[in-house]
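quick one: pyridoxal-5'-phosphate bound model?
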Amino acid sequence: MNKTKLKLGTNTRLAHSGSNPRDFHGFVNPPVVHASTVLFPNTATLVNRSQKYTYGTRGTPTTDALATAIDELEGSAGTIIVPSGLAAVTVPLLAFAASGDHILITDSVYSPTRQFADTMLTRLGVEVEYYDPYIGAGIAALIRPNTSVVFTESPGSNTFEVQDIPAISAAARKAGAVVMMDNTWATPLYFKPLENGVDISIHAATKYPAGHSDVLLGTVSANEQYWQRLHDGFIALGCCAAPDDVYQVLRGLRTMGIRLDHQRKSAFDIAQWLETCSGISKVLHPALPSHPDHALWQRDFSGSSGVFSIVLDKASQAQAHAFLDALQIFGLGFSWGGYESLAVPVSLSDRTLAKGDYDGPVIRLQIGLEDIEDLKADLTRGLEALSA
Ligand SMILES: Cc1ncc(COP(=O)(O)O)c(C=O)c1O
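yep, here:
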C-alpha cells in the first residue's frame, strides 16, 4: 500500500509514515543501522556509486525512514537529519551563505542562532543584519542585490512574536533570496512553512518529535528548488546524526500528535488562568486573544504548542528567582517539548530591535504532560513566594 497517496489524518500519518514494514520482513519498525562501511558487489558498482547506500554519512534505512516521514509532514522534496536543533540552523546557513553575501535574521531569533551568525558567519565574510520580526512585506526595503538568505523564526524565541511569513517569503523570493524558517515551536502539525512560501524548514527535533528530554536531533527540509544544494552542503559538512537518536525520534514521532495536543490544551488552559493571577502583568502566548499577534497566529497556524512566557508585574530579579525557586514540579532547565514541565528566566540582552514592552522579568514556561491542577498549584507556590 502506498500510504503517501492516501488522504490521511495527521495522527494516521504520524503512525504509519516513514518506512514500509514489508521492506524489513514485516517488522513494523525499521532497523537501527549502525554504519560507516557499505559493501559493493563489484568494482564497477563501487566506482559509479550505483547502489542505494554507499557510506554511513550519506544515509541509511534508519535515516531514510525518518526523513521520509518528515517529508510527508512538511511536503518537502528532501530532508536532512543532523545531530542537534542548532546544527539544523547552522548547516543550511553554511550551505547557502557565501563570503560577500548579506543575510537578514529576525531579531527575535533563538540566541545561539544569533551567536553563530555573529561569530562564524561574520568571520567567513557574511554580513549579518537583524530585522524587526514585525517587518512583514517591509522586508523588501532591507533586501540588497547580495542578500542570499532571509531567516525567520515564528513565533520568536521566548517572547513569541508572530511573523507574517507569507508576506516576508513573497518579498524575499521575488528578490531571489532563500527563505529559511525555524518552525520548532509549531512543528509541521500546526504550521506548514513550505505551504506559506518558505524554502527551507528547520526543526529542533530535540523538542516535540523526540519528546522525552533524552535525545538531541535536528531536521532540515527543503523544497524542490533548494533540495540539491542543501543536500550537497550536508554531505560536504559530514554533519550526520547517530542512528540510535534518529530511531528514537522516529519512535517519538508516532505519539507526537497526541502529546502535542495534550500539551497544547494544558498550556492554553494554564496561560488563560495565569492572565487572571495577580503578580503577572502579561502572558505571552499567541493563542490568547490578548496577544498582539493573535489574529496573525489565527490566520496562519492550526494550533499552539506548550511553551509560552509570563511577565512578572514590576518584580525585581530577586523576586523572579524566588518565584522560580519555589517551584517543585516545574524543573529549572533549558529546552522544551519534553514530557516534563520546565521554567527558565529569559534574557533579552542580545536583542537590538525586539526588546518588547515588558515591565518586569520574563519567565518562559514549558508545559509537560503532568496534571494541570498540579501545575497550577505549583505556579501558585511560585506566585506566593513572589509576593512574600
Ligand atoms: C527555536 C529553537 N531552535 C533551535 C533550538 C536548538 O535545538 P537543540 O537544543 O537541539 O540544539 C532550540 C533549542 O532550545 C530552539 O528553542
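The CA atoms of residues 286 and 294 lie 5 Å apart.
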